[in-house]
Amino acid sequence: MSKQEVSVFWFRRDLRLEDNTGLFCALQSKYSVIPLFIFDDSILDSLPKNDARVGFIHESLSKINTELQEIGSSLLIKKGKTSDVWQSLLQEFDVKEVFFNKDYEPYALQRDTTLCEILETNKTLSYSFKDQVIFEEREITKADGLPYTVYTPFKNKWLEKYKSLAPVQEYDTESHFSNFYKNSFDFPTLEQIGFEESPIKVKPHNLKFIANYQDIRDFPAMDKTSYLSPHLRFGTVSVRKLVNWAFHKNDVFLSELIWREFFMQILFSFPKVVTQNFKSAYDGIQWRNNEEDFKRWCSGTTGYPMVDAGMRQLNETGYMHNRVRMVVASFLIKHLMIQWQWGEAYFAEKLLDYDMSANVGNWQWAAGTGCDAAPYFRVFNPEIQQKKFDEKGIYIRKWIKEFDLGYGKPIVDHAMARDRAIATYKAGILK
Fold it and tell me: Hey, where's the site called Electron transfer via tryptophanyl radical on this chain (predicted)?
């Protein structure tokens, strides 16, 4: 019996049916489209069994599957090494075309290169699309074609190009749903893929505070952030819809979205930044890397309330307010003299919105070792930050229950730590 001729759309960082570039193009195919998601063992094997992000992915896929069932289709869920899964699929179906949206992280680029080689051997056509950003790879460059390494000129060029297109095209995917492959694939439970429910959950995103974003974004006790970042990370929202909306609503909020693309472009152009300093002149810094100090930072027991509240919020919820992220990162690097890679790895493990490009970019910004970073001699004073942004201690008391019962002594004196950090940087920066 001959196998059925089909196209496949592979969901990855785009967990939505609405305004999905690759899916829209797949549904134009002359073959019916199997929607696919692969739980990749190469990623999952390093995660705890109750990882909240896997739970969120599963929940998002379940919503997609429910929508598809209403039109007689369903998601095909597979688990394993991606190359093995694809070899199996090519045996099971006569796959004529494969569509997917691009991912720019080093592992994803390598994975997709391998896939395209497998498909080419099978004489299967493959098509990839820009979807998680407005401008990708080499679309925003300097006049000489080189990537920007300073944010402001990147932003100016980005805005100039966006305004020439505004609004960016959105894709009416729903009008082509009739071309989905009609089948009822089994949808696995979280337990069937080897995971379990986490008490930590991704919150719904909320845009009602964006109008005065610039006035409220630095005050963690207000809890008036958008909670968009995990949804952008996993693509449950369309960045095109969001940017087209934000362009008319708030310039500061839009700038944060442009920062996201700036860091993605840096990661794509300079993949060494995943583990190495962007500025190699900082490679000679002699870090203390004290493991006991690191444990106290991780557990939120440094004796600095703003730092400890932030770390406890992270450990309990998977979130941390952006202003507080800057304080805790600066503290780890410049007060404790622990290199940024340690903090970056801990955030990667805990953050619901972990995105490699932003995480690496922001940690190197705090360390002074990245492109367009804070100067090395800028050392946040956690006590001043607390007075400026949580003057009444509302945020701190929310996360440090024992705060009013006599809080512990600081792990290190600020003035001494600041002087030590500046002297160590000065001595270590290569001329």
Answer: 287, 340, 363
